[in-house]
Amino acid sequence: MEDFEEEQQRRKKPRRGANGFDAAAAAERRKRIDAERRQLPAWAARDQLLSLLQQHRTLVLVGETGSGKTTQIPQFLVNARFGFGSGTGQTSVKPRAANGVDQDPGDAGPSTSGRGQANGAWGGGGGNCIAVTQPRRVAAMTVARRVAEEMGTPLGQKVGYAIRFEDATSPATRIKYMTDGLLLREALVDPALSRYRVVIIDEAHERTVSTDVLLGLLKGVQALRGDDFRLVVMPSGALRGDDFRLVVMSATLDAGRFVDFFPGAVAGLIRGRQYPVQVMYTARPEDNYLDAAVCATLQVHTEEPPGDVLVFLTGQDEIDSAERLIKDKLASLPRSQPATVGEGAEGAGEGADGADPSAPAPAPGGPDSLLVLPIYAALPPEQQMRVFEPAPPGVRKAILATNIAETSITIPGVRYVIDTGYVKSRDYNAKLGLESLAVVPVSQAQARQRSGRAGREGPGKALRLFTEADFGQLEQTTPPEITRCNLASVVLQLKAMGIDDVLGFEFMDPPPRAAILRSLELLFALGALDAAGKLTEQVGQRLSRLPVDPMYGRVLLAASDMGCALEAVAVVAMVATENVFHTPRAKEKEWRSARLKFVAREGDHLTLLNVFRGFSELPKESHKARTQWCSDNFVNIRALRKAEDIHTQLLRFLGPPSPPGLGLPLRSCGDDPTPLRRALAAGLFPHAARLQPDGSYRVLATGRQVFLHPSSVLLDRKPPALVFSELMHTTKTYARDATAVEPRWLPELAPTFFAAKAPGQA
Ligand code: CDP
Ligand code: MG
């Protein structure tokens, strides 16, 4: 209850002083948000949900996107002292207030449970935190920020988030938004997930690998934590036994399957509001969906009544191009279109905070009244948050989004959806052992979900940039990722949790046997498993602790043996960082020449190392020097800072001899690149390839033909043999991040792997 009291205090007397104005504005904003919250469909269902969850240990909750599942449910649980029954022993099923709006127990009457009791009210065994998993980092961060704001607490205190390499939580954290992958990592050290009273698996329909593994594990956690799951509230208000609860939520869930999977589960439905959406198709297939999306955006802008546009594209590059194209086209629109007297012009007159009230409203459909906003995972958080802000009066937002806007985040104001019909998706060929990130058509379910985003606040329109016949050809639903990905990491983690019989693990949808076998083979080749399939202490145990792909984990272990751990850590940090280089098309000559000074003839990994070294040598405290250096060298300062961060954390994982540290020697090989190349070969050997007479490469492990990625520094002097980080499949299969290796190192460093494969014969 303390939150709510604090909040009320704050509302009553906004702080004055130097920033008195800001405080008043913030209070105003909070008030608006608070009113909005209470209108969300989740609020109407609150009491029922809480009571369902009192009686069942698993709740499968389905509700339209935007109904308040992600932001509200965890707050309901915290405010209802879920852990059930507050210190006063009251039940959490409360009568409806006279005004028909459900009251937050936090503001219902006098507070009898004071600060001191707050923690105790959670009672029973287990921790007192609620974990809410998200498949995407962006969602975890933006939602946590929003909920912290709603609760009026600084982010990282009562509400926090944790994603790989970033932890914004504290001991005070009660609601922890996190990626599903991170919760999986936590399960490694704490298989009972004892820190959590409630685990909420959100966006379960996405069926990411981590979500699927978690679902299997959670079934075990439930068995582990308490067999008496009908709650008994003791007179003291405490609970008997452990009262672990699981909530599985999503917008488009086949609830039945989840209910069947978890014994004793119950399904709940949040009835949302959904307005009709008029779906339109193109008459003919589009040659270029990017151009088509740009044209469609402008068409909506110039021809349709007000309302924001949400455009689904597949990735950052595409979004950047689309943004540029739209801006170019806008620039060529007639500048002073006569302002139609209508919503746009009127709206601009009032309420434009800080805007010059005498300034003319931007003309609807004109170049100044379209605000293009990108949203994708790698975008800096401040920029991500901009999509949630309402556009200035008379201005239309065009949000260019990846799949992230399909279900995980809800952007207010959207009335038009433009769906390219494509998505970037992970794919795995178990037979070839190849994983790729490819642009593929969406499923029918995805297309429907995307269109639905136009009808949240009123009737909307969805433009599908494909034909109706093509829609008919789409898959009904997307198969779970676990059935089409590289399972090495998953299998390693299961093994580390003591689940030896991976083939017998209770997956909701078991991955193909071949894929599991393949990852077992790979882990065996890396030395992580012994011939009996048991995790090895030297390699397997250690690899499972490192938050990187097992192949890169192996690189780090090898590097510490070979005296180049410091370099390898920097390389892995750089590889783990996206979008290091800034490559504006207009300045191609400039960035190419700037890049030259980093180029290492040994390959891309060492080039990345040079960039990292260059950056680290700058004085840390001089923001100006760092910014200048990055701008001169066409590298992305945010990416480099991120890499620095990952670097620090990886050192912590490897270095100090107490957990999480592995206590490995951290030495440097100085300017001799050979040890590092050998270490890379020792981990990436499953991705070793030999040059073919036609200039392509052949992957030794699989015989597959691949091409060196156009961005590789080795393109001009292709070495006879190389190892690479990953394959990317677009029009051809490209090998990315390559380093030249000596062919003879391979059988030496990975004898079992190459004994049967006869590498020389490739
Ligand atoms: O999870 P679900 O899709 O059911 O909804 P939610 O994410 O809890 O969002 C509920 C409402 O909060 C939406 O209507 C959003 O407009 C709003 N919201 C927001 O304005 N800013 C955020 N960062 C997150 C949510
Ligand atoms: Mg949600």
Automatic annotation (TrEMBL):
GO terms for molecular function: ATP binding; double-stranded RNA binding; hydrolase activity; RNA helicase activity. SUPFAM superfamilies: P-loop containing nucleoside triphosphate hydrolases. The lineage of its organism: Eukaryota, Viridiplantae, Chlorophyta, core chlorophytes, Chlorophyceae. Residues 50-271 form the Helicase ATP-binding domain. Pfam families: HA2_C, Helicase_C, OB_NTP_bind, WHD_HA2. The keyword ATP-binding applies. Residues 1-29, 88-121, 334-366 are annotated as: Disordered. Residues 293-498 form the Helicase C-terminal domain. Residues 17-26 have a biased composition (Low complexity). It is an enzyme of class 3 (hydrolase). GO terms for biological process: positive regulation of transcription by RNA polymerase I. This is RNA helicase. Signal peptide: none annotated. Keywords: ATP-binding, Helicase, Hydrolase, Nucleotide-binding. It catalyses: ATP + H2O = ADP + phosphate + H(+). Its EC number is 3.6.4.13. PROSITE patterns: HELICASE_ATP_BIND_1, HELICASE_CTER. GO terms for cellular component: nucleolus.
